[in-house]
Write a structure and sequence with these properties.
This protein is mainly α. It has one domain. Helix content is 89%, strand content 0%. The protein is built from three helices and no strands. It is a single-pass membrane protein. Keywords: ATP synthesis, CF(0), Chloroplast, Coiled coil, Hydrogen ion transport, Ion transport, Membrane, Plastid, Thylakoid, Transmembrane, Transmembrane helix, Transport.
Length: 184
């Protein structure tokens, strides 16, 4: 440490010019060289360094300004997207409500048309049953009439003579012909 201090002290006591030699003290010469280089760099490089720093400062400020503009644009686009999202959500809700209403309306229409169809089928069934009952009643009447007629003819045949028998047959044929015309 003493050598470093001595080299600074000896700077003020340089021998007069005329002798030129090498200073072998590495610490003293490095500090002198370093101080000379730093001094030259500061003196000549001050302008270049300040220009570089000013340029860097301007680039940083421009980047910040551009970032702010981009952020404002992004915020604006985000607000527009949110507004569109709200609008789409409202439309979706409206479609959902309309869809449910349409489903309910279709369900009631289907229920009503099914009820009408069932009612018509019930009416057709009742008409068919009534028709079949009437047909069965008519068949039973005809059979009863046939049996009664055969029984009456059998009783008449055994009780009547030929002439009375022929008159009765003619009268019955007339009655049957009149009945046939009525049923047709």
């Amino acid at each position: 440490m003493k050598n470093v201090t001595d080299s600074f002290v000896s700077l003020g006591h340089w021998p007069s010019a005329g002798s030129f030699g090498f200073n072998t003290d590495i610490l003293a010469t490095n500090l002198i060289n370093l101080s000379v280089v730093l001094g030259v760099l500061i003196f000549f490089g001050k302008g270049v360094l300040s220009d570089l720093l000013d340029n860097r400062k301007q680039r940083i400020l421009n980047t910040i300004r551009n970032s702010e503009e981009l952020r404002e644009g992004a915020v604006e686009q985000l607000e527009k997207a949110r507004a569109r999202l709200r609008k789409v959500e409202m439309e979706a809700d409206q479609f959902r409500v309309n869809g449910y209403s349409e489903i309910e309306r279709e369900k009631w229409n289907f229920f009503n048309s099914t009820s009408k169809t069932l009612e018509q089928l019930e009416n057709y069934k009742n008409e068919t049953i009534h028709f079949e009952q009437q047909r069965a009643i008519n068949q039973v009447r005809q059979q009863v009439f046939q049996q009664a007629l055969q029984g009456a003819l059998g009783t008449l045949s055994s009780c009547l003579n030929n002439e009375l028998h022929l008159r009765t047959i003619s009268a019955n044929i007339g009655i049957l012909g009149a009945m046939k015309e009525i049923t047709d």
